[in-house]
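Worked Example 4.2. Consider the chain below.
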Amino acid sequence: MALVLPPRRLPLRSALRSAVRPVLPVLPLMAVVALLGLPVASGGEGGAGPADALSALVVGYCAVRLLRERRRPLSRTAVLVLGLPVPGLALAAMNAAQPGEGIAGLGRYLQIFVLVPAAVVLVLRGRPDFRLLAWSFVALAGWQGGIGVHQYVTGTGASYQGEDIRAVGTFGATDVMGMATAVSFGLVCAVGLMLGRRAVRERVLAGACALALLLPLALSFSRGAWIATTVTLTVQLLLAGVRRALKAGVVVAAVCVVLVGGFGVGTAMLQERIDSITRVTDAPDQSVTDRYTMWAAATDMWRTRPLTGVGLKGFPEFRDGHASLALSSGSDTEGAGAAFRRQPLLSPHNMYLLVLGEQGLIGLLGLAGGWLALLVCALRGLWRARTTGGRGLECALISCGLLVWQLVDFAYADIGGPSTVLTALCFGLVAWWALVGGDETAPAAGTPAPAGRTSPAQEVARW
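Applying the procedure from the previous section yields the following structure tokens:
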């Protein structure tokens, strides 16, 4: 009689190690996203926070690893595209009126557009890591959006037209765009995951998350986020296919009807905010007037120094000398746990004009040229994904969507605030797909490359 032994069970420690090991490399990036869910200190001015500190540690780890390995895991194209803004930033920092402010601005720009995106490219090993980070964006959006809806329902949000109903999440009244940005990124990632070629259960979950995030986005009262999200979702749906775009459009329209008619989300304030988008030229409110005035001031700064601009962090110092009398002294902020205060207008709320005024044509061509190169490479990767059976289609749609959203939103906003590190991670996801993940012509993992040639994807994987 044969003795049958019971199946051997792995120890709990080994089981946990097996479960955590695939997530471990991307865990620091997910931790950066998670730290953005912590409440922002009251009265903060948008300085470095815990998420910024952790992102700096990730960059430092990548730098130490590069020095120890003595290898070049980034391709020449990646180095060129990611490093394109550096010369213009360095020149603008040298031309700053205050050297200390110039150095601080240089560090901030390098963090957002160069160092953190490069670290994301180095950390991500493949599309599973990309999807994990995208899901962390969705989770952050759900957390911030849930808090924002609670703020609207209970009247504990930021002040809007005399009522504390504006959904701002944990970012507070001093960064009213923070929650709108986080929710928009999560919505774009959820739509990309829904339109991909993944399992049906994952696509249904992503679609449910996308529909749920429409409510907090509406309650953010952010016109710029609404416009950027509408444009981006339209682009994503069209890139996924016209037939799927029509089906999704019908679903979104039905959900909007339910929200507005069934749950009473279409309040008079929300309707007035939507109508104000079409009145930005005929009858603009004071916030729009201030924005137009600051745009004109930034343009006038550029005319004085067309090539180099007035220097990094120079807009607040030169603003009054170039702005007209139509500019108000600041914007009122109140609510969400903060007392009333007058917040000064220190930027033109347009990234392109901010760069043009402070860095001139040299700086704008460097930054915008890098973004355009990323967009072209991301679209090329999308075309390759569609011609190879849809492998990685969700990564392509997410990357193209995030970049389109950011480029559109930069026409109404600029960098600043605790949520800025999320923008850096966004550019990192885009850069990974555009420069590494979308390279379908590279040999598959484990396949030896021809002698003397190594693809970017294999270099990063081995690193």
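Residues 73-439 form one domain. Residues 351-387 form the longest helix (37 residues). Compare this with Example 4.1 before moving on.
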